[in-house]
């Protein structure tokens, strides 16, 4: 099982120009998995310390991350 | 000398045993030594069934219970040095048991922010039979990380009572100083880390949900990092187990 997606995402956002936080459930190797297996968060916490669910940064697209995955 | 017969004719008179005989015949003379009891040889002269109405209640001091009845489904308990009584004494036995497994990692990925996230799997569901029951949770967790910089992770538990309250971060909700929940792990110092060895934890938590409603438990995790990277919970190549057991009162 590959961890390429996480590594690619990290590389893709390495310069910190894009801020993100997400929970990835399992391996992501397809666009369908990219769309359905990731919960994106705002980076903020609620009063109970839970991460607040947000939306995916526009810059992070399947095509962009896949391009980084293909370089690995 | 053995008494066998009395020859009343030879004595020239009669004896009315019911009115004219008094006193006690000593045992040495073949009597009972008593005016009211009948001598019985229990070893050889007792047969038949003694009615239960004739039986006494045997006290604890004579090896009995001192009881004539008890409470259904309860146990005998010494309530004093010489007294016994029915008691709903705790047996500590296990009631409802539920377990699930997880193979496949979660990746808490990011380069900013924090906060606990809830992992959907594995979860366990317990329906306690008593509000006094406790729930013992035993769970294996595999942790690893990659990326750069200092990384820590915290683990805690979410409890969802059907039709009732949802309590996130059980350990922290019980003790606000427990900011790292049931376990915390630091993966690196200030230097870069890459694919740190997977660490296996087996953790135990005892919960007191105070309900008989269906109760679901899930694992929560938080990645504390200010730098880009991935924190992996569970693993793609190994199976972890999450077990919930009801401990009866």
Describe the overall structure.
The complex is a heterodimer of chains A (72) and B (249). Chain A has 72 residues and is α+β, with helices and mostly antiparallel strands. Helix content of chain A is 35%, strand content 22%. Chain A has a 3-stranded antiparallel β-sheet with strand order 1-2-3. Chain A is globular and about 40 Å long. In chain B, strands 3, 4, 6, 10, 12 and 13 form a 6-stranded antiparallel β-sheet that branches. In chain B, strands 5, 7, 8, 9 and 11 form a 5-stranded antiparallel β-sheet that branches. Chain B has a two-stranded antiparallel ribbon with strand order 1-2. With 249 residues, chain B is mainly beta.
Summarize the structure.
The complex is a heterodimer of chains A (72) and B (249). By secondary structure, chain A is an alpha+beta fold. Chain A contains three helices and three strands, in the order αβαββα.
Backbone structural class of chain B: mainly beta
Could you give the distance between the termini of chain A?
14 Å
CATH-level-4 superfamily name of the largest domain in chain B: icosahedral virus
Strand residue percentage of chain A: 15-25%
Any idea what the radius of gyration of chain B is? 39 Å
Number of helices of chain A: 3
Oligomer: heterodimer
**End-to-end distance of chain B:** 72 Å
Largest sheet of chain B: 6 strands, antiparallel
* Total separate domains of chain B: 2
Main sheet: strands, sense, barrel of chain A: 3 strands, antiparallel
Topology at a glance:
The complex is a heterodimer of chains A (72) and B (249).
Chain A: H1 4-12, E1 21-25, H2 31-36, E2 38-45, E3 51-53, H3 62-71
Antiparallel strand pairs in A: 1-2, 2-3
Helix pairs in contact in A: 1-3
Chain B: H1 8-11, H2 17-20, E1 75-80, E2 83-87, E3 94-103, E4 106-110, E5 117-126, E6 134-147, E7 152-161, E8 166-167, H3 170-174, E9 183-186, E10 199-207, E11 215-224, E12 229-233, E13 239-247
Antiparallel strand pairs in B: 1-2, 3-13, 4-12, 5-11, 6-10, 6-12, 6-13, 7-8, 7-9, 7-11
